[in-house]
C-alpha cells in the first residue's frame, strides 16, 4: 500500500533528462522514482503533495525532490473549468545520483553534492537569489545540448548545494520500494476526491466507498499509506487552501473559515494554530509583512 513506483524512460545519448512542459495539468498520480527531480513551476497554482507535506504551490517555485520521495502536483480545478484551453508550464529535470559517474561524487572538490542529495530526501524548497539563479540555469539547460547540458547541471547543483536560502519540505523522510499499481490508483482516487470535495462535509463512509473498503479497513489502510489519519489529511487540505485565501487578502477570516469546509470559526482557529503554529491573523500579517 504505497505510492506508485514510476520507472522513468531513459534518453538515448543523455545522462539525465530535462524537459519544458506545457500541458493541461501535471498529472495527479502520487508517485516516486529512483531519480532526483528538480521542478520549476512557471505557470500554474494548486496543491502539492511531497512525502508527509501538503502545501500550496504557485508560479516561480523551485523544488528539488530526492530519490524515492513520493510527490504529486494537483492544479486548481477552477483554472480548467473557466478556461478549457488553460495550460500549466514547468521545466523538469530528472537525474540519478550517479548520472555523471561515481568518481565525480568521490572527488574531494565535490563533497557538497552527496550532502545535497542526502538533504533532498526531505525535499528542498529553493529560495531567494539562489532560486533566480537556478531558474535561469534551468531555462538555459532546455536549449543546451551535449557538454553544455552537463555544465548547466553542475552549475545548478553547485548553486543549490552552496546556498543557505532553502527550506526542507517533509518532516519525516520516507522512501519506498516498488509497489502494487492497484493500491496506488486507490489512494490517488481518495486524494482526488478529497481535493475536489474538501469544502463539503465528508464522512468516512463515503470516502471509504471510494477506496472500495470498509470504514475500519480504510482507516487502517490510509494510516499505513500516509502516516496520518484521514481526518488529519482532510484538515491539512483545508488549512492549505485557507493559507492561500489569507495571503490573497480578499476575504475576511470568518468567511475563509466556511469557504474551506470548517463549520465554525473557533474550530477553524484551533486547527489552523495546530497545523501552522500561528493564528490565521498572525499568518496573514507575517506573509504580508514579508512581501
TrEMBL record:
Fetch the InterPro entries from UniProt: Homeodomain-like_sf, HTH_AraC, RmlC-like_jellyroll, RmlC_Cupin_sf
Record SUPFAM superfamilies = Homeodomain-like, RmlC-like cupins
- Which PROSITE patterns does the record match to this protein? HTH_ARAC_FAMILY_2
In what residue span(s) does the HTH araC/xylS-type domain sit?
A: 188-286
Q: Gene3D superfamilies, alphabetically? A: Homeodomain-like, Jelly Rolls
Q: Which UniProt keywords apply?
A: DNA-binding, Transcription, Transcription regulation
Q: Which domain of life is it from?
A: Bacteria
Q: Which PANTHER family match?
A: ARAC-FAMILY TRANSCRIPTIONAL REGULATOR, TRANSCRIPTIONAL REGULATOR MTLR
* Protein name per the record: AraC family transcriptional regulator
The protein's organism comes out as Candidatus Sphingobacterium stercoripullorum
Amino acid at each position: 500500500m504505497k505510492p506508485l513506483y514510476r520507472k522513468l524512460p531513459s534518453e538515448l545519448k543523455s545522462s539525465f533528462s530535462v524537459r519544458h512542459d506545457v500541458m493541461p495539468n501535471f498529472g495527479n498520480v502520487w508517485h516516486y522514482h529512483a531519480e532526483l527531480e528538480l521542478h520549476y513551476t512557471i505557470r500554474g497554482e494548486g496543491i502539492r503533495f511531497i512525502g508527509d507535506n501538503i502545501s500550496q504551490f504557485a508560479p516561480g517555485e523551485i523544488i528539488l525532490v530526492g530519490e524515492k520521495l513520493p510527490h504529486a502536483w494537483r492544479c486548481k480545478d477552477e483554472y480548467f473549468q473557466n478556461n478549457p484551453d488553460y495550460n500549466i508550464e514547468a521545466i523538469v529535470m530528472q537525474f540519478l545520483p550517479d548520472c555523471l559517474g561515481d568518481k565525480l561524487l568521490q572527488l574531494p572538490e565535490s563533497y557538497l553534492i552527496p550532502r545535497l542529495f542526502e538533504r533532498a530526501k526531505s525535499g528542498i524548497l529553493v529560495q531567494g537569489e539562489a532560486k533566480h539563479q537556478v531558474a535561469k540555469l534551468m531555462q538555459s539547460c532546455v536549449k543546451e545540448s551535449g557538454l553544455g547540458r552537463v555544465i548547466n547541471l553542475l552549475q545548478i547543483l553547485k548553486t543549490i548545494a552552496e546556498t543557505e536560502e532553502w527550506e526542507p519540505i517533509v518532516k519525516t523522510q520516507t522512501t519506498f520500494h516498488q509497489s502494487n499499481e492497484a493500491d496506488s490508483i486507490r489512494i490517488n482516487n481518495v486524494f482526488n476526491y478529497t481535493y475536489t470535495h474538501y469544502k463539503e462535509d465528508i464522512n468516512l463512509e463515503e470516502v471509504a466507498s471510494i477506496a472500495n473498503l470498509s470504514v475500519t479497513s480504510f482507516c487502517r489502510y490510509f494510516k499505513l499509506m500516509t502516516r496520518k489519519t484521514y481526518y488529519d489529511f482532510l484538515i491539512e487540505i483545508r488549512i492549505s487552501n485557507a493559507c492561500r485565501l489569507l495571503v490573497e487578502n480578499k476575504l475576511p477570516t470568518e468567511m475563509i473559515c466556511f469557504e474551506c469546509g470548517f463549520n465554525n470559526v473557533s474550530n477553524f482557529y484551533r486547527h489552523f494554530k495546530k497545523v501552522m503554529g500561528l493564528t490565521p491573523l498572525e499568518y496573514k500579517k507575517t506573509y504580508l509583512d514579508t512581501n
